[in-house]
Design brief:
elongated, 211 residues, Fumarate Reductase Cytochrome B subunit
């Protein structure tokens, strides 16, 4: 059945803090990208010195916010929504490759028990525990460059570190582009964006609390 023909119901999925950190983190990542690419000479917008200052401040702000995000996930049990699973993973991948273009219903609709489908779990977990920490670690090393001798890191090459940090930035950019596209694949183009603004997600009736 076409998703547009399904009867929909609203379920409350995203808390205020969840929506807060999602949008603030998104804004920080975008601004880090803008200032970071300017630092590398891609264009001139703020000026090199101001771009560096903004980039450093944003990076530290992101680190503090990320610490609160991890604490929130651990203390509220929200981490359970990111536990990876292979159940229905192939069906979800097939849906995004073929089924979505045929108007087929999502094989794993969102629910109160399972906010993310198997593909989202793997992606978000990888971003959260690998890519973001990698980007923060390389950024902090870059930020503390003048202190390397005292840290025993005098053999570390700045050029290599800069390349690794830039590679992480491109990976985040790719994720951001794909993530924005995926937000348009709900039962309407703005459904998922609206849900992350209000907290209320629209799902096929009867499946909001299902597995």
């Amino acid at each position: 059945m076409d998703m547009n023909e399904c009867k929909m119901e609203r379920i409350y999925l995203y808390t205020r803090f969840e929506r807060f950190w999602h949008w603030v983190q998104a804004g920080i990542v975008v601004l880090l990208g803008i200032t970071g690419f300017e630092i590398h000479g891609t264009y001139e917008l703020l000026g090199f010195q101001r771009a560096v200052e903004w980039h450093n401040t944003l990076g530290i702000t992101w680190l503090v916010l990320y610490a609160f995000i991890i604490f929130w996930h651990l203390t509220t049990g929200q981490w359970k929504h990111y536990v990876p699973t292979t159940r229905m993973l192939f069906h979800v991948a097939l849906y995004y490759m073929i089924g979505i273009f045929r108007g087929e219903p999502h094989p794993v609709p969102k629910s109160e028990r399972f906010k993310h489908n198997p593909l989202q779990r793997l992606t978000y977990l990888g971003i959260s525990v690998l890519l973001i920490p990698f980007q923060m670690a390389t950024g902090l090393l870059y930020y503390t460059y003048n202190s390397w001798p005292g840290m025993g890191l005098e053999d570390l090459e700045l050029g290599l570190l800069a390349g690794l940090h830039m590679a992480g930035a491109f990976a985040l950019l790719v994720f951001l582009v794909v993530h924005i596209y995926m937000t348009t694949t709900g039962h309407s183009v703005t459904a998922h964006i609206r849900a992350m603004c209000t907290g209320w997600e629209e799902v096929p009736a009867g499946e909001g609390a299902g597995e």
